[in-house]
Amino acid sequence: MEHVAKTFGAVAANRDVTLRVAAGEIHALVGENGAGKSTLMHILSGLHSPSGGRVQVMGRDVTGWDTNAAIDAGVGMVHQHFMLVPTLTVAENLVLGREPTRGVQLDRARAVQDVRALAERTGLRVDPERLVAELSVGEAQRVEILKVLYRGARILVLDEPTAVLSPPEVEELWAVLRGLRENGDTIIIITHKLDEVVAISDTITVMRDGRDVARLATADTTPQAIAQQMVGREVALALDAFSAPRAASTDTLGETRLEVRGLRVRGDRGTRVVDDLSFSVRAGEILGIAGVEGNGQTELLEVLAGLRRDEAGQVLLDGRDVSALDVRARSDAGLSHIPEDRHRRGLVLDYSIAENLILGRQHHFASRTGIDRARVAQHAERQVRAFDIRPPDVSLPARALSGGNQQKIVIAREMGRAFTVLLAAQPTRGVDVGAIEFIHAQLRAARAAGQGVLLVSADLSEVLALADRIAVMYEGRFACMLPGSDCSASRLGPYMTGAAREAVA
Amino acid sequence: MILIAFLLQTIRISVPYLLAAGGGLVSERVGVIALGLEGMMLSGAFGAVLGSYYGGSAWIGLLCAVVAGVLTASLLALCTLRFRADQVVVGIAINLLVVGATRFFLRLAFDSASNSPRVDGFGGESSSLGMLASFANPLVWLGLIALPALAWLLWRTPFGLRVRAVGEKPAAAATLGVPVRRLQFRGLLLCGVLAALGGAYLALDQHQFTDSMTAGRGFIALAAIIFGRWMPLRVAAACLFFAAAETLQIQLQGVQLVPSQFVEMIPYVLTIVALAGVVGKSSPPAALGKAE
Amino acid sequence: MRLAQACIAPVLAIALAMVVGDLLILTYGESPGTVYRLLLEGTWGNPYGFGQVLYKTMTLTCTGLAFAYAARAGLFNVGAEGQLAVGGFAAGVAGLVLPVGTPAVLGVLLCMVAAMAAGGAAGAVPGVLRARFGASEVIVTIMLNFVLLALLNYALTTYLAVPETLHSEEMRTGFVPRLGAVIPAFAGSAANFTLVAALAAAVFAWWKLFRTRSGYELRAVGLQPDAAEYGGIPVTRTYWKALVWSGAFAGLGGINFVLGYKHYYEEGFAGGAGFLGIAVALVGRNHPLGIVASALLFATLSQGGLAVNALVPKQLVDILQAVVILAVATAVPEVQRLIRRTASAVVTRNAAPAES
Fold first, then answer.
1. Residue ranges for chain C with pLDDT beneath 70
2. Residue A318 carries which DSSP code?
3. Are strands A370-371 and A366-367 parallel, antiparallel or unpaired?
4. Where would you tag: which of A45, A306, A364, B201 has the fewest CB atoms within 10 A of its CB?
5. Backbone conformation region of residue A280, classed left if phi is above 0, alpha if psi is from -120 to 50, else beta
């Protein structure tokens, strides 16, 4: 793939990417979230057409082909989110679209037989006659890979295949991939876990900001070197920015603002995603939670905000047990929350700026005779000025604003009022550089004002730049809890990938 | 003898339910809510009478019914699939449209506000002996085999496998190169054909078209689909059960055991109860009602 | 600007309906111009016709509000037909059981409350089933229509009907005067002062939706349930409350026929006005004031159908109404996509210099 570009509206996901993968190798495509890895692979597998550049497979120019052509040419993609039909059996999922027939009938016996044979041959063992809904996550993934192989794929693309697997399942997967490589198949694996890159790949392409920034041979490099390339000057930039004084030592901090005791939470799939977590955030500190997404951060914040039920444990706000309170009561008790997904949760996109600025606080602007519109407007004008929301027209729908200005609405609402604890999840995701600086300044100001901030971010440089203490979350627990001044990307890396773990009190 | 008469009448009453429910089942299985069944049936009934009247044969009536059903289903498919208009609104609008259009063209064709002249059907008078003769009606047989045939189609053919995948998780089917939109379109056309045949049966059985003659049968068919939990044979059983209740009510007309209105309510009440999850778990196709 | 944008889809839809209407009129060998002129003369051209339009406007406003109020919460109430009938029935029964000496104003108010309470109760069924079990309110309201109509038929034929008819006895109290009693020009038409209640309901719905906290919360739930939940809004409670109010609005429509016109409950008086409420709400873009205008339009159409019946079948308007619904339902998402695309392009252009 040469000089590939892809834009979605005004957003450039890929700009001038070149990726070369040799036949019969396992190639790792690494980079941070949003670096453009998945987009590039969607282009390769025919789901998107590139806006520029060329794509060649086995020497043939295939730029802009569709899914079917890609499948015919032996390119198959295993998606990050399972693309399986839960109500069908394993065999049915595999043959879908390429059904073996006997007359006009579906040849079920042959389907089952073929699938069983394929499973035997590749070592991806799974019962073809079971319903997909009954499979474990690891088994479901095996089905995904089988599905691609069933279509005769010789080039396999796996998008974050280990995100949902347990360590033994990961080992099994590696064995399968090595077996395929021995068969002469080519494998591209998208990941941001460095230990995986080292464990499985032959060669590596690093992507950042929609560009390819390095091509390395795994044998000649180290995780540190890869991390450097992944984060690149972003780290330098963020470290430059953080010249503001941190709280000197934990001893000078104020009283405990937020305390969590023995918290356990079950996720949507019924598995425990937060496991016996205890920690506290004190006045005048930012506690940063780093870690690969999907390790329980989302659920932890939802429980703290009152959006999700916990299984066990206590949440104390300024010493008061708020475990039984709902969202509104917690908010009134001084809890502010910048949610991780502003488009889904943080804003009602079709509401005006003014209306969005009172979301969650609407009961403070209403009386028996209705909402006090003059006060809402005043409040909005004030916030728009204080937080420099542009354009400064409070009647515009939030949808019409840029990402940075949308996020400023959320920030203004949650921080432009009296609060004692702030939950900030991915506060700068998808916003422009100017807004990032502004938001970071706001978080530091909150610390200076003696509020407690719990910062959750997948952007390691952000956590490093802001947090006084850093915890790395891994599989529902804290793998470490370190003073911010002692941390660096390379030091945190092993904790993020589960390679290291400390007892955290 | 009474029992045989009861069974025969139950079957006669169940035919339009079986056909329409079969069509609606396909529609829902590809992910489109089957709220337009009533309209498709009514258009089929009208088409059948027009064809039979001008063509002089019930067979031509059937052909016209199919054409009418296909046209109605195409309009529904155009709005919901191509333009992604809301399925609920479109379904209801289609019903209103067909009621209006059949009345309009009833006036235009037969200059009557209420009914058409008598047309040829497939024999079978309404006497008790005639009931047996109703088995000369090909639609009766079609109705009886419709749902078993659909069970075969959905579970034994590649088309059926794709239908089940599309109604459940269209994105997964799309990544495997299954043409989702085209499949949904075909499913809706099949729905239109079957529902129209259900309507045609009503009209040809009564040898005329009367205004709004489907009288909510499309919704009873929808009730049967939900009560039958989207499984063809269960849906067939639900249709037969609803028809049996209706037959019982007709035959017991003199004896006021249970007020007839309460018998009428059975399909609807059972559907609501089924939706509330009181009787087992009911799970519609996961992508039902969502435009991708 | 916003008003203009909101009008695009309905105007397109009405234009399309007129084209379809032209074609249908031509199949009948009549001239569209003549037919439309006759339609206008028979509705807005004389006091009786206009009175009939106003009469129909009342019910359609109520059923339109019913659909729109639920739609604003992201729900489909397809049960206005049954709720309307139940409301009329309750008003009729209230008028029968209230003692003869009840003061007129009190009698009317009690009948109104009865109508709204009955409609609201009918709305509570899908509301609770949705909130408690997640049952689709679309299917439940549709099925409930049939159940309610059968129940009303039972209650009427078994207990209340005047022999040989399908209506109850005349009420003893709760009459609402006709417009003709005050404005003689309207004499003979069914238009009556319950129209004031419908207009008041529209204003109330507007106030509640756009000026109160509960309306703010209801619309947030309808637009983005996840954001509403984040804002501390109880989503399921909002659902059932919305459906109760929705049913109450539909129920209120029942007093038009019962209190204002015939003074008894008669089976079938709803006559499709419940379903037509969906069309009214769509064209009125789910805005209470838009709904009043749209109800007037649809009332004109259905009264106009009678006026032109001599030339073309009155069923012409049934077709046109359905075409309008289909066209609006289809055009609204298309127009929205278009507006969104141009709007975001404009904002990106404007914002670009400020950010770089």
1. 1, 340-356
2. T
3. antiparallel
4. A364
5. beta
Q: Which residue of B has its CA nearest to A100?
A: B158
Place of tokens 């067979």: B59
Asked whether the beta carbons of A28 and A18 are under 8 A apart, the reply is no
Selecting from A307, A351, A399 the residue whose C-beta is nearest the C-beta of C230 gives: A307
Taking the alpha carbons at both ends of chain B, their separation in whole angstroms is 53
Using the beta-carbon criterion (under 8 Å), do C230 and A360 form an inter-chain contact? yes
Copy the structure tokens of residue A198.
Answer: 């080292």
Contact C135/B271, CB-based, under 8 Å?
no
User: Nearest-CA residue of chain C relative to B93?
Assistant: C322
Q: Is the pLDDT of residue A232 over 90?
A: no
Q: Angle at the Cα of C204 (from C199 to C209), degrees rounded to 5?
A: 130
User: Looking at beta carbons, which residues of chain A come within 8 Å of C351?
Assistant: 390-391, 401-402, 405
* DSSP one-letter string for C78-110: --HHHHHHHHHHHHHHHHHHS-TT--HHHHHHH
How many angstroms separate the CA atoms of B92 and C62, rounded?
Answer: 19
Q: At what angle do helices C288-307 and C47-72 cross, to 10 degrees?
A: 140
Q: Does ipTM exceed 0.85?
A: yes
Residue of A nearest to C340 (CA): A400
For residues A469 and A467, what is the distance between their CA atoms, to the nearest angstrom?
A: 5
- Pull the structure tokens for residue B93: 């609008």
Average pLDDT of chain A? 86
Whether A73 contacts chain B with CB within 8 A: no
User: What string of DSSP letters covers B9-47?
Assistant: HHHHHHHHHHHHHHHHHHHHHTT---TTHHHHHHHHHHH
* C-alpha of C2 from chain center: 23
- CA C174, CA C167: separation in Å to the nearest integer? 17
pLDDT at B130 over 80: no
- Mind telling me how many Å the CA of B40 is from chain C's nearest CA? 15
Q: Are strands A285-290 and A26-30 parallel, antiparallel or unpaired?
A: unpaired
